[in-house]
Amino acid sequence: MTRLIAAALAATFCTSAAAQSAGPGSVDLTQATKLREAALADTLAWQITEDLTTEVGPRLAGTEAEARARQWAVRRLTALGFANVRVDEFTIPTWVRGEERAAVLAPFPQPMTIAALGNSGSTPPGGIEAEVVGFPSIEALQAAPPEVVQGKIVYLTHAMPRTQDGSGYGVFGAPRRQGPTIASQKGAVGLVIRPIGTDWHRNPHTGVMRFTDGAQPIPAGALSNPDADQLERILKRAKEPVRMRLVLESRNLGPQPSGNVLADVPGRDPKAPPVVVACHLDSWDQGTGAIDDAAGCGIVAAAAKRIMDSGRPLRTIRVVWFGSEEVGLFGGLDYQKRYSKQPHHALVESDFGADRVWKVDSKLGAERKSEAQALQTILQPLGIVPGTLDQAEGSDIGPILADGHPGVSLLQDGTRYFDLHHTPDDTLDKIDKAQLQQNVAAWTAMLAVLSGGTEPVR
Questions:
Q1: Range(s) for CATH 3.50.30.30 in the chain?
Q2: pLDDT tens digits, 294-308
Q3: Distance from C-alpha of 371 to C-alpha of 361, rounded to nearest angstrom
């Protein structure tokens, strides 16, 4: 208890000291502190998340459902009082899933749960039947002679760990991202993988992949983790070839409309570069996209609304609800194409669920070090540790950050994120309201600093 009190007093002292500092480039945190504390009682982020997942539901990119989500978003952001609500339209190649079934035929016949990966090739209506050959890693598949794979269904596994920062996703996502291409090039007729997830529910995790380097599309799907375990046991025990029937029917609809929804909190200085706060509006089609990423849209809109309601910020806050993130970052790439030549004060994205923010990273440049340190100070009372001052990231904002624009990352706790990610379990009941409110408080405090503070509207 003594340590907790000391830590709280230290955080309060840091905030107070920073608020009273008067050096060059100093940031007054008095207003940000009040806004941060009030935001801990926020209900708007939950309302947006609940309404989007209920009134629209799944929002697969390029489909009629995503179009309804854009229409819903324009109405909602307008009703909340945001200015200049508009849609930047673009088109994307659109893939949709159909019937999905898998079963081991021999030597131990039994059904398996499976979900097609985004952009999977389609089986004929009756499916395909073939021998299964298993590989323990993407490297083992790459090293396999083509004759070992040709005419077979490849099974590919991995050992993705559970981590707070989600750092395993990049490396252990290779079976999904590169596996289909490699299997196709070696002559496989299909691919099934262990899902890129950390849960033990009988829920497959979907996700996008691409056939590259001239590879012909083949059916490609993810089992659930329990089914992957079962298939590995079967492969180990079998005294004869393991045969599988795979039904993964899908269609390519060709170019279909998508778009980014944008809205502003106008700033007092029309020449000042905007602060962009972002999420993505689309989702996969199995669950209702609550953690990925309706909650992110609720968080950024609720924080921007709190700044708007407190007065007029110095810098414009631009809310961007990106489209078509899940299937290839199309919204982020369109934003980069349209706006990369314009300056930005900072870009920040919420796209890692709704559990508590635990660390802040930023890349604002050496000349804005005091601003970056002010962000660290204002966030510490929320239990957010200071991170690096030389990096920032985000899925949709990644392309424009790569062009040299400044950014901030509020890193959420991802310990359970990959239990739910891209599964039927991505639903509203998985969101913890208190942790969601901590996110809004963190984003509100961050925006209070980055937007330059508000003044009463006259």
A1: 108-241
A2: 999 999 999 999 999
A3: 12
